[in-house]
TrEMBL record:
Highest taxon in the source lineage: Bacteria
Cell compartments where the protein resides: Cell membrane
Cell membrane listed as a keyword: yes
One GO biological process term: transmembrane transport
Regions crossing the membrane: 7-29, 72-93, 100-120, 140-159, 180-205, 238-259
Record carries keyword Cell membrane: yes
GO annotations of cellular component type: plasma membrane
The species this protein was found in: Paenibacillus taihuensis
ABC transmembrane type-1 domain residues: 68-259
The protein, known as: Raffinose/stachyose/melibiose transport system permease protein
Length: 274
């Protein structure tokens, strides 16, 4: 009976692994095919002759380096702002006793429930009057706004589990609130901070709706725009689109695999201590 249960678990895990890995494998095969093979009847077949030229077309024709640089810049600035702001707010909510603490917490929880699409028109009008429409700030500011609530939720749940005795002893030694936050709370909170970094990175890296709404300058477009370079009125280069999707996913996969252990630790720590 035990061996049967173990075999069933292995079977379920194998199915889960296959369903997760196969789409990526299929996309790699897709990127190495010609249009004729992609549009042919045998949809799941391997490429007869790998078309490495698709990657060359994706790299040059898709303005890969330019769009990659814009995505890196926007994502980096957003990440730094989200980490700093959410860490300070989470510390204030979880460690201080003040009248508006519950109200502030409720505001951030409500912020997690507002769909991004519902804010496009108001933001468009606001940014136009602020003269920041079609600039990087028209992406960075809403990205920070929509990423901060979930970051506060994760960090505050972790910080509530930090023993108060650590701060009390530091206060007795003459440390200020800012010193305690910088030298004690932040180093302890590294695991959930890494979780926030990864979740925010993936969300912003793949975001297209706001980028397409607020950005029209070719020099400011981010990586998701590159796909449409290969779509014209009379022709679509499907292989190059697949290659560009692979190139665009490589930074995300690299970051995730490098920091995957920290992500798991951060999730577990936040769940247990929160």
């Amino acid at each position: 009976m035990a061996s049967f249960k173990k075999g069933l678990v292995y079977l379920l895990l194998s199915i889960l692994v296959i369903t997760q890995i196969y789409p990526l494998f299929w996309l790699v095969m897709y990127s190495l095919k010609t249009n004729e093979e992609i549009l042919g009847s045998n949809f799941f077949s391997l490429p007869s002759s790998p078309q490495w030229a698709n990657y060359k077309a994706a790299y040059k024709g898709g303005h890969y380096l330019q769009y990659l640089g814009n995505s890196v810049l926007v994502t980096t600035v957003t990440l730094l702002c989200v980490i700093v702001l959410s860490a300070m707010v989470a510390y204030a909510i979880s460690r201080f006793k003040w009248k508006l603490g519950g109200v502030v917490t409720l505001v951030f929880l409500l912020g997690m429930m507002i769909p991004m699409q519902a804010t496009l028109l108001p933001l468009m009008v606001m940014f136009k009057h602020m003269h920041i429409l079609n600039t990087r700030w028209s992406l960075i500011l809403p990205y920070i706004t929509f990423s901060t609530p979930i970051a506060v939720f994760i960090l505050s749940g972790f910080m509530r589990g930090i023993p108060a005795e650590i701060e009390e002893s530091a206060f007795m030694d003459g440390a200020s609130v800012y010193r305690i936050f910088r030298s004690i709370i932040l180093p302890i909170s590294v695991p959930p901070i890494m979780t926030v970094c990864i979740l925010t990175f993936i969300t912003i890296w793949n975001e297209y709706i706001m980028a397409a709404t607020f950005i029209s300058k070719e020099s400011l477009k981010t990586l998701p725009f590159g796909v449409y370079t290969f779509v014209s009125q009379y022709n679509v280069n499907y292989g190059a689109i697949g290659a560009f999707l692979i190139l665009g996913a490589l930074p995300v996969l690299l970051v995730y695999f490098v920091l995957s252990e920290r992500i798991t630790k951060g999730m577990v720590a936040g769940a247990v201590k929160g």
